[in-house]
Amino acid sequence: MTTKDTIIKLASDLILEKGFNAFSFYDLSEKMGIKTASIHYHFPSKTDLGIAVIRQQSESFIALQAATESKDALSKLEAFFSIYIRHKSQGKVCLVGSLCTDLYSLDPAIEKELKPVVEGILQWVTDILKEGKRKGVFHFSAAPRTKALLLITNMLGILQVSRITGKTDFNEVRTALLKELKTKKE
Amino acid sequence: MTTKDTIIKLASDLILEKGFNAFSFYDLSEKMGIKTASIHYHFPSKTDLGIAVIRQQSESFIALQAATESKDALSKLEAFFSIYIRHKSQGKVCLVGSLCTDLYSLDPAIEKELKPVVEGILQWVTDILKEGKRKGVFHFSAAPRTKALLLITNMLGILQVSRITGKTDFNEVRTALLKELKTKKE
DNA sequence: TCTTGCCTATCTACTAGTAGGTAAGTATAT
DNA sequence: ATATACTTACCTACTAGTAGATAGGCAAGA
Predict the structure, then answer these.
(1) Residue-wise pLDDT tens digits, B108-130
(2) What integer is the mean pLDDT of A69-98?
(3) Going from the N-terminus, what domains does chain B have, and what CATH number goes with each?
(4) Nearest residue (Cα to C1') for C10?
(5) Could you give the CA distance from residue A67 to residue B25 in angstroms, rounded to a whole number?
């Protein structure tokens, strides 16, 4: 892994663990054994680094999307959930949640970079739900996009709230969501 | 309103708007026309101020709970939602969401103060759901506490996500949640 | 009714530390 | 010899927090 990639990885970890405003170039420099000025060589500003983190996360989302393209709707949804499972196991929140709470304290370029990513994720989940409903494996009454918003906010929210209420609540919520989606109504 | 109360109010606003780590005593001092040292007189440390903000929010939660005690379950749930509606109208996120994303960068005293508040809210919503189900006005299959977690994370999450996807998504989600709860299944 | 003295709330002035960022120089590898 | 990746050394701005002074209000005692 190149230095640049290592910086992105560590910055990403810190953003998801402590928030964008709570990590510094010094934190990174200590962990990497290089000077803060060297990080500035790769990323002129903290905003640039933030943007790189968003892009990297976006790419890994798109890769997951591509990798599960030919699978069934349930597998796709489980793949989507797997991202949050991994985050939870490390005590992290998700990038969207972390950046959105700090959004109005950040450079507008961050918001600009984040927006298409969020819209992409929302579209992906919406499509998964539509497909699942069409094939009769998912059952829900709200509009697919609305239902996608509900699922996303549940996962995003429980990553945060379960830091307080306890880790087991994460699985409680995830399981309930899957069960509810699979249950036929009326 | 006393100076102390004004500080709490403004600090609260800033935390919900920009996050705990993005506001400073200087921000408050500028808005109030007093010096930072004067704020330190009322709140020795930033953590002390954070704790005061949590206590104030907790009290207003408890007051709302008390004020709606004799009402029906639907009214209670709408009262619960009204908190988020007010926050959304001001572009804010909720205190729990804001503090949880930054939690691991904050003084442990913050977590200690926040925990019973979150548990209180969760208990309140759980009780509302139980009552609604018993009286036949709410319909859901998950355990009441789990369903409460789902509702809370939906509201907490949509406050954050709709900063990016657009304000209207907040109402979309809120309306869908109420409709789904009121709809009888099977 | 003075006066003494404490309490509250603020100020000025300061500290030590950290933040993000820059400029100029160095070693290395192609 | 040029680009890459880094260093040293620095700057400016801001952070939370402290010390000591001040001015007004209140209350008890001579």
Answers:
(1) 999 999 999 999 999 999 999 99
(2) 98
(3) 55-182 (1.10.357.10)
(4) B38
(5) 49
